[in-house]
Give the backbone structure.
Amino acid sequence: MAAKKKKQVTLHVPSAPFRPGDKASFAPFENEPGDLPRPDPIKCTASETTDHAYGLVRVLDFEGNASGPWNPELTSEELREGLEHMVRMRIFDDRMMKMQRTGKLSFYMRSYGEEAVAIAQTMALENQDWIFPTYRQPGAQFVRGRDMVSMINHCIGNQEDNVKGRQMPVHYTYRDGRFISVSSPVGTQFSQAVGVAMASQYKALDECCITWIGDGSSAEGDYHYALNFASVFKPPVILNIVNNQWAISTHANLASGNPTFASRGLAYNVPSMRVDGNDFLALYAVTKWARQRAAAGEGATHIEVLTYRAGAHSSSDDPSRYRAGDEHEAWPGGDPVERLVQHLVTIGEWSEKKQEELEERVDGEVMAAYKEAVTYGDLANGPYPSADTIFTEVYEEVPWHLQEQWDEMKKWSVD
Amino acid sequence: MPEMNIVQAVNSALDIMLEKDPNVIFFGEDAGYFGGVFRTSDGLQEKHGEHRVFDTPLSEGGIAAIAFGMGINGLRPIAEIQFADYIFPAYDQIVNEIAKVRHRSGGEFWCPLTIRTPAGGGIRGGHHHSQSPESQFTHTSGINVVYTSTPYNSKGLLISAIESNDPVVVFEPKRCYRGPFYGDPHNVPTWKDHPEAEVPEAHYTVPLGEARLAMEGTECTVISWGAMVHVSEQAIKNCGISCDLIDLQTLVPWDKDAIIKSIEKTGRCVIVHEAPKTSGFGAEMAASVQERCFYHLEAPIERVTGWDTPFPHTTEWDYMPSPARIADAIMKTMEE
């Protein structure tokens, strides 16, 4: 006999809250600056962060004022430095995207709307700390002093690309800045960062490792490996989930049935924070707090960085095909650059005119870097790195079977 | 010279490297306090400390990932995967990350990691304690692949792997941990009095990429690795044909010169492995031998392998190549 059909006859598959044609509307953030206490980072237990994991740590309100126990009291010089890095990131991204459209690079990914994440968080660290990024944290390199020409050389795959044309654009490596190689498989760096931190712990060095994962990729096993190993071995690692709402066209509600990503850390007994990711000051403060815990031997901190992916996933997708057109405007978190400008103006340390001058100066720097980089070649026109780079650095030394194939390739080389 | 079985030889290699290099650390499931389910790290935690020899969560993907992170941050980790059958949660980390990081970072980061794992059948381990997945790693650029067969090469190859600045996956034939396997399940010899069980106590290496000539002959070349080296030895003795028996030892990079030299002498080739036939490393060997030695061959190349089926439990002796099957393949090459 056939079983009786239940009322619900099909799979439950969550959809995004808004799709093209919908009018997006979000509730305002529940927490105001000052709502959540700043626990002692050394003594803090995971359960003491329950409110932080379900709430939202904020410092900046939407009028440009900073307040509350999380206010990191940055100097105006530090604030302006952060702003300059963010402006540089945005202008750099715009230039690279234009170059991508002309074929000078194959592919590109902007950090648009998320510039504060890597920049505020890296500024909160020490220079000896390791950075294990995804493709959405290139801004950390500005903080660590990387030359823009060198970054562009990589993106356009020219002769001077330090990864020798082997990886897609935005897959930076910058060892001098302790910025570890970006990899395409999403999530792998999260668990690896725990190992990086365990090595620092083993060597008893005062250094930590910061890493990020997306809301979407937090569904990978690597996310859970990372939390579990971090919980067990207590290495100095800062584990961030950047919840920018979207993994290409997949909404965050398909990555987890839990209403906050931060709260998942509590189950691993790791102190967990949810922070306004477009609030430069809150991001800085929470990261500093996590760094203090790491330095004191208290182990990992888990942070959900709540933000919004204002642009496309990459140069290969068109968000108007899968999300509401007004969603970015409706997002309650605003824009990280505008919010920091507003704050600097409010405290009398900045003006519209100074912002214009800054943008003009940075635009000139980016343009000059671009012009220099293309003199070394680009993807559309070459010259490229030598095809020999296919065979080098696969192993420390070239084994015989690769040497044979290398010799074979040379006979047919299109160089 | 002391006599060791493979368990003792592996233990000795780990002990020596932990002693020699403070950046060497060893970890895996049950590998610390208990000393490993096969006892290969017995006593090492007590001797070298919990921070150097430790247990991990049951998480092969996590083990490989933390090993990657430690390797790029200056350590020389050795990770144990308890059974090769359980390596697959770590496969993405090994194939896409560990194997690629030197290349993808333009040489700015590298991972001097050794993964060692017991492999192969003959212990009544059924589907998931018996497989021999070496060809799933030989197809990946950026890692070296080793398959040991004796106490002497298990220690020397493991030390070479640990000292290598490239990642190395080392398969150890678990059936042979305490004695060679000659294909008769009722005959359970120990390593006692076996010449390859004479293992120096001190540091030595067996270089990666070099094969071992286990038997020397004139009529046929038998190429094998792991436990099948000993089964092949028995087959050669049974059929009475004068054979070179080449124990490949390192599969990537394999010893081209040793193979060519032998085939040019014998003109016949039989390849033996216990992994399934289709896309097994024997296919690579057969293709390479015909590319390089075609005009020296007197007969078609024979392959004797496990079947293209899941590995069985009670009937494993019908799955694994037997001395009779190998001898038959040798005799076939002699018909030409």
Q: What stands out?
A: Chain A touches chain B through 46 residues (CB under 8 Å).
